[in-house]
Every structure is written in C-alpha cells, then in structure tokens.
Design brief:
The protein is mostly helical and 189 residues long. It is built from six helices and no strands.
C-alpha cells in the first residue's frame, strides 16, 4: 500500500487510543492519535528493525559454533564439554529459527490481510528467540571459559554475565513497563 493509499484509508478512521485522544484535545503538544493501521504498521517496522539486529548476532554466533567442531582443539574436549557444545549448537539453531521465523511468516501470509496476527506472532517469536539467544551466548561463554579459566571461575563469570543479560533484557524492560503503567493509571501519562 502506498503512502497516498494509506492517507486516504486513514482519513476515514477514528483514533483507537482513547488516552491519546484526550492528549490531542488538551493541546499539550504531545503525540497525535495513532490509528489502528498506523499502530500495526509501526509495530511491524519496529519488529523488522529488531529482527535485523538479532538475526545478525545469532547468525554470526551460530556460524562460529558450527566451525568449532572442525578445529583440532575440539577433538581434545571431554564428554562434558562436548555435551555443552551440542546443547549450545541446538540452542543456537533454535534461536536462529525463532528470529528468522517472522520473515517466513510474513512472506507466507503477505497480502492475506492478517497483519495484526503476523505482528503478534512475530513479537512472540522474537521474545522466544531472544531467550534462546541469551542461553546460546551463556553456553558459548561456558564452553570457551572452561578452556581458558581454571576452576569454577568460568561458571561464576558465566553466571554473572547471564545475570547481567537477565537484568538488561528482561528486568529493566519490565520495570520500565510497570513505571509507565503506574504513571498512566495515576493520570500523569
């Protein structure tokens, strides 16, 4: 749909976000109302941008993991480290599948007037893919650090990094969401 077609289509639609309607009426200079079609298009574009970033990272990591099995040092790994490697490769493949899936879903359903469903499914797959990517990174670190750092220090370092990931990727966004919800419910948002 071209921009001109979107403008014509949107001209007859009412805003679907009541909270934003009040903002526009008060003249506070806040954002204008967002129509349903605009919201789903914005969310889809955001998912595409996020997917590009995540896909690049997971593909580089997965490529590295696949190449490890062909190095001379791999033959020297013990059973436990080989198990970590297998789990890591499976997690990496699963993360790759989840993070590329939105592209496939979009391609198969393009033109079916299912953008809301596509955006929702893509969003869920991205969240799943990010969890799998975090686990892949953690296992990769564990595999590498067990070879480089003596004793349990490798596990401690990996645990610290995974806590940091958990905070940055999950705790912080959840806290920001709660704060925004509290502001909205108190009438300040």
């Amino acid at each position: 749909m071209t921009m001109a077609e979107q403008s014509v289509e949107l001209a007859g639609q009412a805003p679907t976000c009541p909270a934003r309607q009040g903002v526009e009426a008060t003249g506070t200079g806040a954002e204008p109302p967002e129509y349903a079609r605009q919201r789903v298009n914005r969310r889809w574009n955001e998912i595409l941008q996020e997917t590009r970033v995540a896909q690049t990272g997971v593909q580089i990591l997965f490529g590295f993991l696949l190449s490890v099995a062909f190095t001379p040092l791999f033959r020297e790994l013990g059973t436990f480290d080989r198990t970590i490697y297998v789990v890591t490769v499976v997690l990496g493949a699963s993360a790759t599948g989840s993070l590329i899936a939105p592209v496939s879903i979009h391609r198969f359903l393009s033109g079916q007037r299912m953008k809301d469903e596509v955006v929702e499914a893509a969003s869920r797959l991205m969240i799943c893919g990010m969890v799998l990517l975090a686990l892949t990174i953690g296992c990769t670190l564990l595999l590498i650090l067990r070879l480089v750092v003596p004793g349990v220090l490798a596990e401690v370092l990996v645990g610290a990094v995974m806590l940091w990931f958990g905070f940055c990727w999950y705790v912080l966004p959840a806290r920001l969401r709660r704060r925004a919800a509290a502001r909205r419910s108190s009438g300040f948002g």
